[in-house]
Amino acid sequence: MKKLIYYWGAYGFIELLTYILLFQWVGFWPLILIQIASTAFGVFIVKRLWRGITQNMRKGKVMTPYLLDTICLFLAGLLLVIPGVLTSIGGLLLFLPFVRSWIKPRINRWIERRMSQGHFTYFDMR
C-alpha cells in the first residue's frame, strides 16, 4: 500500500511538471481546451462502448473475439476522462492498433493468472 502512495505522488508530481511545461509552451486557454476536449472524447468513447456491450448482451451475441480490443478501448476512454496530460497521451496511444496488439497479450496473461489464482468469479448470464 505504501508503494501505491509513492507511485501516486510521483505521478502527480510528473503530471504537475508536465502541466507547467505545456502551460509555458502553449498557454493557459489552449491547455484547458485540450483537456476539456480530451475528457469529452473519453466520455463519448466510454458511453458508446458501454452501449454496444449492453446491446450485445441483451441480444445474446458473443463478444469474445473482440473482448480484449473492447477492454483496451474502454481503458483508453477511462484514461482520457482522467484529467492529466500523461493519461490523455496514454489513452490516445491505446487507440493505435499496434499498441493494442502489444498490450493485448499482457492483459490476457494477467487475466489468466488472476483466474488461476481464484481471483475471478465466473457466472453465466443465460
Weakly predicted, low-confidence segments: none
Tally of individual domains: 1
Q: Radius of gyration over alpha carbons?
A: 18 Å
The total of beta strands comes to 0
Strand proportion: under 5%
Pattern of helices and strands: HHHHH
Distance between the termini: 38 Å
| Structural shape | globular
Structural class by secondary-structure content:
mainly alpha
Keywords: Membrane, Transmembrane, Transmembrane helix
Protein name: Exclusion suppressor FxsA
Pfam families: FxsA (PF04186)
Organism: Listeria grandensis FSL F6-0971
Could you characterize the architecture of this molecule?
Helix 1 crosses helix 2, helix 2 packs antiparallel against helix 3 and helix 3 runs antiparallel to helix 4. This protein has 5 helices and no strands. The model has no long low-confidence stretch (mean pLDDT 83). 9% of the residues are buried. It has one domain. It is mainly alpha-helical and 126 residues long. It comes from Listeria grandensis FSL F6-0971. It holds the Pfam family FxsA. This is Exclusion suppressor FxsA. InterPro entries: FxsA.
